[in-house]
């Protein structure tokens, strides 16, 4: 699992060291050399676990899918975001930790809408 891209759909074979990585940052963390650039890349689909090659000089929109299982592997990357939050039970089981932003209806507003005495002088 890649800690840099949470929804990585393929692994990439580095042409320099012939090892599989989920992203270029994973390669940089584990190797001392720079990632070599190439025009033909080798991918391994994480859905069907089959490898395939793509020529990057003639890359088209139809090349964004795995040729074996049609998994769309070119998607917007989701990167982990640091946040502070409270972990608790499933909200369907225990909803006490949710904040209710609804506003209670005011008693004065209810009285003004349904009380004829407030508008007696205007009724004539």
TrEMBL record:
Matching Pfam families: zf-CHY
Molecular-function annotations in GO: zinc ion binding
UniProt GO cellular component terms: mitochondrial intermembrane space
Disulfide bond in keyword set: no
GO biological process, one term: protein import into mitochondrial intermembrane space
CHY-type domain span: 1-71
Keywords: Metal-binding, Zinc, Zinc-finger
Keyword Transmembrane: no
Superkingdom field: Eukaryota
Protein name: CHY-type domain-containing protein
UniProt organism field: Mycena sanguinolenta
